Amino acid sequence: MATQNLCTVERRGRVHLITLTGAGEHRLNPALLSAIRSAVAASAGAGALVLAAEGKYFSNGFDQAWASTAPRHLQATMGGEFRGLVADLLALPMPTVAAVTGHAAAAGCGLVLAHDAVIMRGSRGFLYMSEVDAGLKLVDFFAEVFREKVPDAVNRRDLLLRGDRMAAPEAVRRGIVDKAVDGGVEDVVNAAVAEAEKLAARGWDGEVVAEIRKAAWPNLWSKVKDYGADAPAAAARPRL
Amino acid sequence: MCTLEQRGRVFVLTLTGDGEHRLGHPLIASLRSAVASVAAAAASAGPGTALVTVAEGRFFSNGLDIGWAGTSRPRLQELVDALRPLAADLLALPMPTVAAVTGHASAGGFLLALCHDYRVMRADRGVLYMSEIDIGLPLPPYFVAMFRAKITAANALRDVLLRGRKLRAAEAKEMGIVDAVCPGPAETAAEAIKLAEQLAARKWDGGVYASIRMSIFPEACKSVGIVEESDEEKRKHFASRL
């Protein structure tokens, strides 16, 4: 599958902007996850990273339809690639910003929270942890994303145990999202890029950014580090 | 000591009588038996049930039966040990749980309320109170784990555990400890049942619900002796759902 159909990469000043392309749900299947990881790896030399999407959805989560038809041993690659993407983002030597341009559900929501900062479209789209409604359990590293990034007990309960659909104003009020931006998809992207540019302008040493980030979220890092692109024993990496 | 009834999809567990509902062996045993019945009934009822725990009188529960323990440290430890599996039963219950805090909830009684997913409390009377600091008792490890899990704002945790602050419903709501405040006990019970009905109407798979609850409060669950499922077991469940 041609990766250029799945996401685009551009530089805007010091910002490495990745956009999930097309009007679809940007379901996280192995192909899209691999494309995003390649796009993340291509950020070398930039000062900050932004992940955004076209259309109504940021990402509607894992591609269950794909998984239900895929051979058993391939289903696991979805989880392994996602775990690897989280590791890559945690180890990235620059600040990261998620531009939540549309709905972010399940693994899509997890992907958002794996970034340092979250800018969300004010008037449309919501964060939704659909697993409780869909009858799906949370594997340990995935739950850890929420334990680290949503520390408030009530927020964690409402998001994960009640499956609340949180629009931007509520997400900001609860401290789950940093900022809500009025307007359309482009306005959100521009705001995220502006925020990323500000972070890049701090001139932080990238390696230090990565080390401090891993130290700030140690439980999550320990659970994903063996899956990252730079994991020491990549060849001997445990198979999911 | 307690009664259990089913109203549609909602199980209502009532601590009966006007007393303090002290958690001694008899009441703890009754509660465990009632909660076990709820879990069994849920299995046959299928997805879409919920539990409300409510109390009659001025107290939700005033904690462990320290009167029975007297000056006996072993007896006190017995009660601490007996309450732990009840906490585990509630944390593992395969349905949403709501505590209708219709009166004072202190020490073990406050813990009991915290073992539920949601809390509705009366505004006119009653406080949430961790008395241990005032009476000079250290906290059992699983008590601490529960409070640390559910009260995540540092100053709120400090006020509750280290200052022995007595919380009325409104302040408890502001601190995120209580979810809804109602004028009096009747409204509190009604609101708790209404909330339980809304939660039951979501028709969540009970096993998944309990699993997610454990995922969000793993330390509290571990501290009361619940063993979380492995990722391998979760993935088998996932595969069976595709």
TrEMBL record, chain A:
<comment type="pathway">
    <text>Lipid metabolism; fatty acid beta-oxidation.</text>
</comment>
<comment type="similarity">
    <text>Belongs to the enoyl-CoA hydratase/isomerase family.</text>
</comment>
<dbReference type="GO" id="GO:0005777">
    <property type="term" value="C:peroxisome"/>
</dbReference>
<dbReference type="GO" id="GO:0004165">
    <property type="term" value="F:delta(3)-delta(2)-enoyl-CoA isomerase activity"/>
</dbReference>
<protein>
    <recommendedName>
        <fullName>Delta(3)-Delta(2)-enoyl-CoA isomerase</fullName>
        <ecNumber>5.3.3.8</ecNumber>
    </recommendedName>
</protein>
<dbReference type="GO" id="GO:0006635">
    <property type="term" value="P:fatty acid beta-oxidation"/>
</dbReference>
<keyword id="KW-0443">Lipid metabolism</keyword>
<dbReference type="InterPro" id="IPR029045">
    <property type="entry name" value="ClpP/crotonase-like_dom_sf"/>
</dbReference>
<dbReference type="Pfam" id="PF00378">
    <property type="entry name" value="ECH_1"/>
</dbReference>
<dbReference type="InterPro" id="IPR001753">
    <property type="entry name" value="Enoyl-CoA_hydra/iso"/>
</dbReference>
UniProtKB/TrEMBL annotation, chain B:
<protein>
    <recommendedName>
        <fullName>Delta(3)-Delta(2)-enoyl-CoA isomerase</fullName>
        <ecNumber>5.3.3.8</ecNumber>
    </recommendedName>
</protein>
<dbReference type="InterPro" id="IPR029045">
    <property type="entry name" value="ClpP/crotonase-like_dom_sf"/>
</dbReference>
<dbReference type="GO" id="GO:0004165">
    <property type="term" value="F:delta(3)-delta(2)-enoyl-CoA isomerase activity"/>
</dbReference>
<dbReference type="InterPro" id="IPR001753">
    <property type="entry name" value="Enoyl-CoA_hydra/iso"/>
</dbReference>
<dbReference type="GO" id="GO:0005777">
    <property type="term" value="C:peroxisome"/>
</dbReference>
<dbReference type="Pfam" id="PF00378">
    <property type="entry name" value="ECH_1"/>
</dbReference>
<comment type="similarity">
    <text>Belongs to the enoyl-CoA hydratase/isomerase family.</text>
</comment>
<keyword id="KW-0443">Lipid metabolism</keyword>
<comment type="pathway">
    <text>Lipid metabolism; fatty acid beta-oxidation.</text>
</comment>
<dbReference type="GO" id="GO:0006635">
    <property type="term" value="P:fatty acid beta-oxidation"/>
</dbReference>
